[in-house]
Amino acid sequence: MIDWIYFFDLCGTAVFALSGALAAGRHKMDPFGVLVLASVTAIGGGSIRDALLGTTPVFWIQDHNYITVILITVILTFIFVRKPKRVPRYLLPVADAFGLALFTVIGVEKALNLELSGMTAVVMGLITGVGGGIIRDLLCQQVPMVLRTEIYATASIVGGICYTISLHWGAADMFALLFAMGTALVIRLAAIRWHLSLPAFDLKTPQ
């Protein structure tokens, strides 16, 4: 199971690095900017999580495979995505959705391994899932996706709860992993497809 968690962690790193690289392409950044944006998107959330949990040095300093995956992803993006205008508009949010689902479970798993409470684990999953995207959007001078009305953080929270409860009820590790990832992914993709959103908190100024 540890090997599968590690495999999915690297997959999530690649997916979020792709998300960051595509965002950099849309904003016409230079190669260094692409690398920076891909890196903070891929490892930003996990770095915040590890700092909060006190597990330092953070994961990517202990294991250079994460940086290697980011570099390979950026290089492949340069090679195969030469004209950002031709990249389908749905590719960035879909890639982000996969990264969100993967990293949510990774964050919950790490907190549970430290024998923290289920609630804390769900919060760590949320931070892992959305932290990198928040940094990416801020660097692109956009309102972070997690703060918009479209369902985003909710998908991460529900996925984290599903994973925690499944393990608590004695489900097999792989079933809990796939069930939680699938749930978060379906919710997020459904929100993208049908523009599902939570009610906005709208304080209208009196006339």
TrEMBL record:
Keywords: Cell membrane, Membrane, Transmembrane, Transmembrane helix. Residues 7-81, 94-165 form the Glycine transporter domain. It comes from the Bacteria. InterPro entries: Gly_transporter (IPR005115). The keyword Cell membrane applies. Belongs to the UPF0126 family. This is Trimeric intracellular cation channel family protein. The lineage of its organism: Bacteria, Pseudomonadati, Pseudomonadota, Gammaproteobacteria, Alteromonadales.
